[in-house]
Amino acid sequence: MISDSVSGAVIISIVDMILLLFFLYVIGLILKLLPLVNKFHLKSHGREKHDNT
Amino acid sequence: MIILNALHSMLEATSLIHLTAGNVFLIIIGMVMIYLAIVKKYEPFLLLPIGFACIVANIPGNQLMKPNGLFSIFYLGVSKVIYPPLIFLGVGAMTDFGPMIANPGIMILGAFAHVGIFIALIGAKILHFTLAEAGAIGIIGGADGPMAIYVTQTLAPHLMAQISVAAYSYMALMPLIQPPIMKWLTTHDERNIMMKQVRVVTKREKICFSILITTIIDLLLPPIAPLVTMLMFGNLLKESGVVDRLAKTAGGAFMDVITILLALSIGSTMSANTFLTVKTLEIIVLGLVAFMTGTAGGIWGGKILCRLSHGRINPLIGSAGIASVPIAARVSHSVALQENKYNFLVMHAMGPNLAGVFGTAIAGGILITLIPH
């Protein structure tokens, strides 16, 4: 249980920052792997658009 | 005598007799907000309705403000946390996550720019706010209005007026707050760095991104699931390409309706009897500290990445990690343009800006989980 004090606020800040870095790292990792989905060839009725221009 | 009595009765029937100095002060503040929106063009979509509702909220006895009045009913969308996920739906339907997907390395800037949250949190605790109140005040530093409302409603609903007004006002004033800090912390050469074009992201990647992020965040951080789910659903509507009408409505007319309701609800909380307190002043100062230190943290993060990438990343994009899409990215772009009129940084700054949206949501979710309320 985190105490309702300045030291409690410092502890929460440190834990939150570490977890924030972890979660953003995980999302970054997913983003790095995302181009792999382009390797699967699916049947499509039309050509896929590249629209990030 | 009869005439005097009649005039007195007339005066009592009007709101004039109940008008306090506090009401007059906040009416003037409302007028300043409207001035900034119309003349200075500072986020008029927010400041105009907030300023107008602030004026209305300080006219005593206004029917709109009574328990079953229109503004009180609008406010249910804030107190029941309906508007924030709906705003996120619209944001998702309007946003291209391509710049973030194309450059995963800059995700980390979404964390650096959130150092302001923690400085404000600790500062609020030093000023004797409770831990739950301090957590809600800290989230102002995320520069994400819907997220600030979401966290405040959970941790400290009694501070909703002060926190939402501080968050939205500072978001609107970011073009004033950020540039001096950005210029102070960077050198001329750093501001001049021109970044390379990011890779093209396919539609398939963007669709998979929406589904994957929803699944992962909903599994790992349930407290923020409503916001992230709606953000990603809105983005799926846009990227799927098969429901253009729904995407246009979610990011257009629907978003406008929710913005009107939300901004009027926030402005209507600024009545003198609840708003003019020492706590409000402290929250407004802490919010400013959070924005300034968050901007500085983002710039320092940008400088670190600049060193690590051997000068290929412009540190100015770091301050965009403070969320507030797309205001912060536009500020990075305009500061870069002042140095070099050919340095178009906006798409590069959108990467950390979007990472900042996730950063604020994650930081807020962790605060809700860790802080007893």
From TrEMBL, chain A:
Q: Which domain of life is it from?
A: Bacteria
Q: Does the keyword Transmembrane apply?
A: yes
List the transmembrane segments. Answer: 6-34
- Alphabetically ordered keywords of this record: Membrane, Transmembrane, Transmembrane helix
The protein in question is named: Uncharacterized protein
From TrEMBL, chain B:
Q: Where are the transmembrane segments?
A: 16-38, 45-61, 73-94, 106-127, 167-186, 207-233, 253-276, 283-301, 313-332, 344-371
Protein name, entry field = Sodium ion-translocating decarboxylase subunit beta
Keyword annotations of the record = Cell membrane, Ion transport, Membrane, Sodium, Sodium transport, Translocase, Transmembrane, Transmembrane helix, Transport
Entry annotated with the keyword Transmembrane = yes
Which NCBIfam families does the entry link to?
Na_pump_decarbB
Offer one Pfam family short name for this entry. Answer: OAD_beta
Q: Check the record and name the InterPro entries matching this protein.
A: OadB_MmdB
Answer whether the UniProt record assigns the keyword Transmembrane helix to this protein.
yes
UniProt topology in membrane: Multi-pass membrane protein
Q: Where in the cell is it found?
A: Cell membrane
